[in-house]
TrEMBL record:
The keyword Nucleus does not apply. GO terms for molecular function: lytic endotransglycosylase activity. GO terms for biological process: cell wall organization; peptidoglycan biosynthetic process. The lineage of its organism: Bacteria, Pseudomonadati, Pseudomonadota, Betaproteobacteria, Burkholderiales. The keyword DNA-binding does not apply. Keywords: Cell inner membrane, Cell membrane, Cell wall biogenesis/degradation, Lyase, Membrane, Transmembrane, Transmembrane helix. Belongs to the transglycosylase MltG family. This is Endolytic murein transglycosylase. One of its GO terms (cellular component) is plasma membrane. Coiled coil: none annotated. It comes from the Bacteria. It comes from Pigmentiphaga kullae. Its EC number is 4.2.2.29.
């Protein structure tokens, strides 16, 4: 082989080797950079990726959250590693010590940050809206919307939201909207109602799952003792069957709304509203709270007995009576004791206040 050709070949090999080493060095540096801890403005940083966000939009949200990754770099690495095609929407958290590689893998897995909010049995819709409004990780969209608009947004067939939301603890990604959480709670309550309705007593004087919801909401507010739920439900069912007014204080309080000051008076029992079960017979037009599963079950499987009255003993339990005379004796013992007062003759009520 001529000496000149050998020299050219050798020079070419050297050049190729140099390029290869340089490429390996670049790749190595890139891999090392992928593994380096990210610079964060705090120990933990949250950001939200909405459904349909482009890779450029994701890179911008990461940057705006204070995570020191140039958007072009994040886009390039996401494309090279194939992460771009697998990124899932949701709320994400980056902690001190996390690397870009950790972040990319978290995005690809859909490893969203979980928060929780709890709706308590017996809460009304005002309380649920307030809990959503207070939660720092819930995205607020309900401000300025009336109840009818909210129920339309969740797909409910009624314009009144009371009772439609199953009390439970709900996990959600940071940045989830209040309406999304309400929609989940609504669907959960619909599933519970369908299951409960299938288990109803054949003699139940209730014509629809919604009426079950109304009765269960009253039972939820009337008892603090698990053992009394089905018995209290039985009292209301007995009254419905014989046409007696339900005469339950929580419905009156609900009808008074925000003007109720915590002290139920005799004039309140006489003030007619659609929810006053002293002045109107039968069930009120809507639920008065959001009942849990135990109260729903009590409403469709009430205890069978002859009681028509009950009164709180003041310790969470209730005393039950078949007759008004027996009931008034319990009222005198447990509610008017030491006050020198008698039950008002115009109200055959389970709770009487002076």
């Amino acid at each position: 082989m001529p000496k000149r050709h050998f020299s050219l070949k050798r020079a070419l090999l050297v050049s190729l080797a140099t390029l290869l080493l340089a490429s390996l060095a670049i790749v190595g540096a890139g891999v090392a950079w992928l593994r380096m801890p990210l610079s964060l403005p705090a120990d933990k940083v949250d950001f939200v990726i909405d459904e349909g966000t482009t890779m450029r939009g994701i890179a911008r949200q990461v940057r705006e959250a204070g995570i020191a990754v140039p958007p072009e770099v994040l886009i390039a690495y996401a494309r090279v590693t194939g992460t771009e095609r697998r990124i899932k929407a949701g709320g994400y958290e980056v902690a001190r010590g996390d690397s870009l590689w950790t972040l990319l893998n978290r995005l690809a897995r859909g490893d969203v940050t979980q928060r929780e909010i709890r709706f308590i049995e017996g809460w009304n819709f005002r309380q649920i809206r307030a809990a959503l409004r207070r939660h720092p990780d819930v995205r607020q969209t309900l401000d300025g919307l009336d109840d009818a608009t909210v129920t339309a947004k969740i797909g409910a067939s009624t314009s009144h939201p009371e009772g439609l939301f199953f009390p439970d603890t709900y996990l959600f990604a940071v940045g989830s909207s209040d309406i999304d959480i309400l929609r989940r709670a609504y669907r959960a309550q619909q599933r519970e109602l369908a299951d409960i309705w299938a288990q109803r007593d054949p003699d139940l004087p209730l014509g629809s799952p919604y009426e079950v919801l109304i009765l269960a909401s009253i039972v939820e507010k009337e008892t603090g003792m698990e053992a009394d739920r089905r018995r209290i439900a039985g009292v209301f069912v007995n009254r419905l069957k014989v046409g007696m007014p339900l005469q339950t204080d929580p419905t009156v309080i609900y009808g008074l709304g925000e003007v109720f000051d915590g002290n139920l008076r005799r004039r309140d029992l006489r003030a007619d509203t659609p929810w006053n079960t002293y002045t109107r017979r039968g069930l009120p037009p809507t639920p008065i709270s959001n009942p849990g599963r135990a109260s729903l079950l009590a409403a469709v499987q009430p205890e069978k007995h002859k009681y028509l009255y009950f009164v709180s003993r003041g310790d969470g339990t209730s005393a039950f009576s078949e007759t008004l005379d027996g009931h008034n004796r319990y009222v005198a013992r447990y509610q008017l004791r030491g006050q020198g007062l008698q039950p008002p003759p115009s109200f055959q009520t389970e709770t009487v206040r002076p």
